[in-house]
Design goal:
Largest sheet: 9 strands, mixed
Oligomer: single chain
Radius of gyration: 20 Å
Helix content: 25-40%
Bound molecules: nicotinamide-adenine-dinucleotide
Strand content: 25-35%
Shape: globular
Distance between the termini: 48 Å
Number of strands: 15
Order of helices and strands: EHEHEHEHEHEHEHHHEEEEEEEHHE
CATH class of the largest domain: Alpha Beta
CATH topology of the largest domain: Dihydrodipicolinate Reductase, domain 2
CATH superfamily of the largest domain: Dihydrodipicolinate Reductase, domain 2
Number of domains: 2
Number of helices: 11
C-alpha cells in the first residue's frame, strides 16, 4: 500500500473544520491520526470523526505520536504563548512538515525563527492563503503582467467575526492582521514586494460591542518595489453587504477582483469575465500533502516565507496606525 502522510492537528475550531472536510477526500494519501484542542468537546468530536487519538496538550501529542505533518489552526495569540517555546518550533524539532494558518504569528521575531527552522531542516511548509489556489489567480496575474498598473484599491469590509479572541488587538492582531491579510497577500501575489507602509485607523463607528479595542476601520497605503501604489481598507462595522476584493486601475484598462468569486478585466474593445471555478481550499490541502509525498516544496503556492512577508506588512500597518500615520519602510 502507498505511504499515507500521518497528520496531527493543533486546534480543532472553525478553520480546522474547513481542512477536516478536505482530509475526508484525501484518504488515499493522508490520514489524520492525532488531534489536539483545549476544548474537550471539540477534540473528542474530531477524534471520533477520524478515529484519531485525542490530546488536550500539544506537547504530549508531539511526544507520543509519530507524525509526518502538523497543522497549526489556533488563534493568532496562541502560537507562542509564554513559557511554551512555541508549537511550530516544537513540531520542527520533531521533524514534522508544517501547515500554519494565517496570520502565522503575532511577532516577526517568532515567525522568523520558525522560517529559519523550516529552512534548516528542509521541511515542507505552507500557510493558509487558499486564495492563491483559485484558478483565476494566475489568469489575473498574467493579464496584469501585460498592463501598466497605476494603483489599486483593496478592501475587506464586513461584520465582526464571533470568536472570542477577535475583538482585542492583543489576541487577534486587529482586522488588518487577522482578516484583511488575505487581501494584502493577494496584492503581494499580483504586484510583488512592498517597500513602504503608511496607515490610519479609527474608532467610534462601533459603539455597541463590549470588551472591544481594535480599529473599526483602517486605510493602509502601500508602495511596491515595481512602482505600483495602493490603499487597502478594512472595516468590521457593517452587516449589510460587505465587500472584499481589489479594484486595479491600469493605463487604458481596469480589473475588478471580487474575493473568491471572480474577476472582470476591461480593455477598450474587450471585456473578460471569469468566475472562480475550482475548489481552491481542497487544492491547498491536496498540494501540501502532494508536496510532502514528492518532497517538492516548489508545488506549494503559499509557503510559510510568503506568510512572513505578509505579516511584516500588516504589523507595519499597525505600527503606523499607532504612531499617527508614520511611514514604515520595509526591507
Ligand atoms: N484561511 C482562512 O480563510 C481562515 C479562516 C478562518 C480562520 N483562519 C485563521 O485560523 C486561525 C484559527 O481561527 P478559527 O476561526 O479556527 O478560531 P477558533 O477559535 O474557532 O479555533 C481555534 C482553536 O484553537 C484551539 N487552541 C488554542 N490554543 C490551543 C492550544 N494551546 N492547544 C490546543 N488547541 C488550542 C482553541 O481551543 C480553538 O478550538 C486564526 O489564526 C484565523 O485567522 C483562517
Amino acid at each position: 500500500m502507498a505511504k499515507k502522510v500521518k497528520v496531527g492537528f493543533i486546534g480543532c475550531g472553525g478553520i480546522a473544520g474547513y481542512h477536516f472536510g478536505h482530509f475526508e477526500k484525501l484518504t488515499d494519501r493522508a490520514q489524520v491520526t492525532a488531534v489536539c484542542d483545549l476544548v474537550d468537546e471539540r477534540v473528542k468530536k474530531t477524534a471520533d470523526r477520524f478515529k484519531a487519538t485525542p490530546y488536550a496538550d500539544w506537547r504530549e501529542m508531539l511526544a507520543k505520536e509519530k507524525l509526518d505533518a502538523v497543522y497549526v489552526c489556533v488563534e493568532p495569540c496562541a502560537h507562542e504563548k509564554k513559557g511554551t517555546g512555541g508549537m511550530e518550533l516544537a513540531a520542527i524539532e520533531k521533524g514534522c512538515h508544517l501547515f500554519v494558518e494565517k496570520p502565522v504569528a503575532m511577532s516577526m521575531a517568532y515567525a522568523k525563527k520558525v522560517q529559519a527552522g523550516l529552512k534548516k531542516n528542509k521541511l515542507i511548509n505552507a500557510a493558509g492563503f487558499q486564495d492563491r489556489y483559485q484558478d483565476i489567480a494566475p489568469r489575473m496575474k498574467g493579464w496584469l503582467a501585460t498592463k501598466d498598473v497605476a494603483f489599486f484599491n483593496g478592501y475587506w469590509v464586513g461584520g465582526m467575526p464571533g470568536v472570542w479572541w477577535w475583538r482585542r488587538r492583543e489576541t487577534s492582531g486587529g482586522q488588518a492582521v487577522e482578516q484583511t491579510i488575505h487581501i494584502f497577500d493577494m496584492a503581494r501575489y499580483l504586484f510583488g514586494e512592498v517597500t513602504a507602509v503608511q496607515a490610519f485607523g479609527r474608532r467610534g463607528v462601533i459603539r455597541d460591542v463590549e470588551n472591544y479595542d481594535t480599529e473599526d476601520a483602517s486605510a493602509v497605503n502601500l508602495q511596491f518595489a515595481n512602482g505600483v501604489i495602493g490603499t487597502i481598507y478594512s472595516g468590521c462595522f457593517t452587516k449589510c453587504g460587505g465587500k472584499c476584493g481589489i479594484d486595479i486601475y491600469c493605463k487604458d484598462a481596469r480589473l475588478d477582483y471580487t474575493e473568491r468569486v471572480g474577476f472582470k478585466a476591461i480593455e477598450p474593445n474587450l471585456t473578460i469575465e471569469m468566475k472562480t471555478g475550482n475548489d481552491y481550499g481542497q487544492e491547498e490541502d491536496d498540494t501540501f500533502i502532494d508536496a510532502i509525498l514528492d518532497g517538492d516544496q516548489s508545488l506549494v503556492l503559499s509557503p510559510y516565507s510568503e506568510a512572513v512577508r505578509d505579516l511584516q506588512v500588516v504589523l507595519a500597518a499597525n505600527e503606523s496606525m499607532d504612531n499617527g500615520g508614520k511611514v514604515v519602510a520595509l526591507k
